[in-house]
Structures are given as C-alpha cells and as structure tokens.
Design a protein that fits this description.
40 residues; mainly alpha; 3 helices; rod-shaped
Length: 40
C-alpha cells in the first residue's frame, strides 16, 4: 500500500468515526474524498 492509498483509507476511517461532525480539517487533507460528500 503506497502513501496515497494509506491516506485514503485513513480518511475513510475518520469519516466513519465522525459522520455527524463537519470534516473541515479532513476536507483540507483529503479534498478529493470529502468535497463531494459534504458540499453536494
């Protein structure tokens, strides 16, 4: 698993643990993952 994949999975885990919290910090780290979920 390369760094990009590791970061992607870490962000998925954080999203699952904090679904009811606005993911501002996570969105900055992983915009490609969170933008669609929280801005759509």
């Amino acid at each position: 698993m390369n760094n990009g994949e590791r970061l992607f999975h870490l962000c998925l885990q954080r999203k699952q643990f904090k679904l009811n919290v606005m993911q501002i910090n996570d969105g900055k780290r992983c915009p490609q993952l969170f933008t669609g979920h929280f801005l759509s």
